Amino acid sequence: MQTNIAARTALVLETNNLRGGAGAAAAAASLHSVIAMLARQSVPLTALAQIVVTHDGLSDACRDEVLRLAGRDVDFVRIDAATGYYDAKNAGFAATDPHRCDHVVFADTDCVPAPAWLAELLAPLAGDAAPAVVVGRTSYAANVVGAALTTLDFMYFPSPLRAGATRNFYANNVVFRRDVFAEYNYQSLSGVYRAHCQVLGLHLQEAGVPLHYAPLAHTEHRLPDTRLEAAKLRWMRGQDTYGLTPHLVRAYLPASLQWLGRSGPLGPLCVLASRLYFSMRALNRQELPPLRGARWLAGVACIAAFSAIDMLGALVRGCGWRTSGDRHADADAQALSYHRR
After folding, report:
1. What is the per-residue pLDDT across 38-62, written as a single tens digit (0 to 9) for each?
2. Burial of 267 (C-beta count, 10 Å sphere; 0-12/13-18/19+)
């Protein structure tokens, strides 16, 4: 049955997160590594209806190696260098064939998929009451820093729409029924880095579209290559909270508290304080190896330290100070470096 689903499914990969770092050679090496891992999935790439890779200038040699590793045809979609991460995903979706592809999987080239990731992501689609969206589980590496960051960046909250559903998803690990993504897709959010999928999750919940959660469909997101870029990521995540807060306030707070969405830094800081509480509670509850003793204390300290940077970024943005993260209308086009093996 999974093979039948795969035969009507497209896989869209973007290379935006490979733009940073040592240049074209590093991007090509990282892309080849991920394609090789995907080719070893329990559901092979050859079983899929289509594979789309968006890029802003892969060499002929790089593309030839992708084809060799994939063992099949791949559609390479050229995009402008200024195209953002979510616009690249929209462009990849637009390149999928509506006559062959009923479902579209979105994955990232800076993630390491588990061997059965694709099979687990597609499995819920085989039933008669197949969900319109299936969300996999994303985490960072299974160490102290990775466990702490996972509680901040990759939280999943139960949905009121259906048992086994989640309120939110991440764009690196999800499959949509074609008509659902065509209707909603990723909308433009000025000056926001990577909160678009959170906003789309809120829109889908408002529309009554449940997001089925498949925790065994696991992929590991790489950490930035340098400490400086890791700090920059935290800063930009914090600034994202400013743009995300009005959407959260509209979705979850009563009319009497809607003013928090227009409260400068106050609303975002309240959101981050709430997230800090849930992150502390989530440590050792996210299907990663548990931290004990001194490692648990180190994990708590990491959550607090990373949250402090997030809060500083939100405070600066909320006060209207202009920083590198919000000077551009398309902040999500900025590239960090994710080539660490």
Report:
1. 999 999 999 999 999 999 888 999 9
2. buried
